[in-house]
Every structure is written in C-alpha cells, then in structure tokens.
Amino acid sequence: MELFEERGYETTTVEEIAARAGLTERTFFRYFADKREVLFSGSKNLERNIIDCIEGAPEEAGPFDIVTAAVEAAGRALQEHREMRFVRARYSLVTKHPEIHERELIKLASLASAVAKALRERGVSEPAASLAAEAGIAVFKIGFERWVTEKKPLGLHAHIRAAAAALRVVAVGERTPNPRAVPKKKVPKKKRAPRA
Q1: CATH number of the domain that 7 lies in?
Q2: DSSP state string for 65-98
Q3: Confidence at residue 193, expressed as pLDDT on a 0 to 100 scale
C-alpha cells in the first residue's frame, strides 16, 4: 500500500512490490495473480470469518439475521486488524481505478456465493439462501462505505447494523424516520352543518 501511495498505482510495478516485501517476482506470483490482488490479500480471511459465524449460528435464527450477525462480526475483526489509514487509502484506490473496482465487485460476488452455499448447507432453501446472502453482502458493502468515508466514524459493526436496519425498513415498505423532520400540527376539521 505504501508503494501505491508513494509512486501511484499505475506506475508501481510488481518488481517494486516484490522488492519492498523482500521477495522475488517469481515468489510474488505464487501468492498473487497480479498487483491488484495485493489489495485483496485479506479477502479469504474475511470469507472464512463470515462462513465460520454462519456455521456456528443458532439453529432457530433466520437466514438474514444469520448473515447480518456474521458480517457484523467480520466487520469487528476487520476493524481490529486494519489501520484506518490503510483502509481509507485502499478504498480510495478502489473508487479511483475501474480495474480495481471491477475486482472488488468480483470478490463481493464470490463472497455472496460462498455465503449462499453456507446457508444452503444449513438447510436454507433457494431463493432464500441467495437472497439473504446478496442482501447481507450489500449491507456489509454499504456499512463499510459509510464507515470509511465518515470523518469520525462509528465502529464498522455499528454501520453494518444500521445498514441492515435500513434494509429491513425498505423491505417491508415502511418510511424511514427522518430525525430532523418537524412534526406537522393537526388542524381540526371544520364541522359542516347537516343538510336538510
């Protein structure tokens, strides 16, 4: 990440990344397909954390609640192990470079597939497993984006929880309460005189 920040993503070479890490290029390519993959080095750990939580969820829990709890727990772990400076720098690269953004979307789609598979293994039928997985990953994505772009963010897990709550409101068709809205005063209706 430091090289990308110092030299720019486009101009940083695999040779430079490998040298900074104390590796040969050949060794680098054993771990990463290309330099974009360096930015996603934690994706397998994230997936494993989420799947472990799904596998350990209570039997009576619903699919969306299982996925929400899993991504919330993974969010806590991610926040504990990543410096905010690193997270923001990575997010900036993802949003500025279409090829990195594309890889991010592919990784999220792969994660959603793994989550759906884990739900099916718990006995959740389709389309519920896929819907819960896709919705849960969307909640994670929105929570992450809000966390990384706020000046004084809440914890990542709190942003994930808020995104899940907002999705529940949207899904049942309720209006999201606006905390800044001024309640309207009810004006009494005028009584009409009875018709003869």
Answers
A1: 1.10.10.60
A2: HHHHHHHHHHHHHHHHHS-HHHHHHHHHHHHH-H
A3: 63
